[in-house]
Design brief:
Number of helices: 3
Distance between the termini: 36 Å
Shape: elongated
Radius of gyration: 15 Å
Number of strands: 2
Number of domains: 1
Strand order of the largest sheet: 1-2
Largest sheet: 2 strands, parallel
Length: about 70
């Protein structure tokens, strides 16, 4: 990760983490890997993908607020 301090170490966390990947992050921001990269910094974290992460919710993120 670009701005992660090398000296910063995280305490191990032996939990499962289910990740919901917003379609706006994938389709608009084009950086779906940032969430996974951050969670992988936590030692012991078991990261699972939620089924349907590849689908679009249809809401368009802020589009529903800016185009009523």
């Amino acid at each position: 990760m670009q701005y992660w301090p090398d000296q910063l170490r995280l305490k191990a966390c032996y939990l499962k983490s289910a990740v919901y990947e917003p379609c706006s992050q994938r389709n608009v921001l084009k950086n779906q890997q940032s969430v996974y990269a951050l969670l992988q910094k936590i030692p012991g974290m078991d990261i699972k993908l939620l089924p349907g992460n590849d689908l679009c919710c249809g809401a368009g993120g802020l589009y529903t607020l800016t185009h009523p």
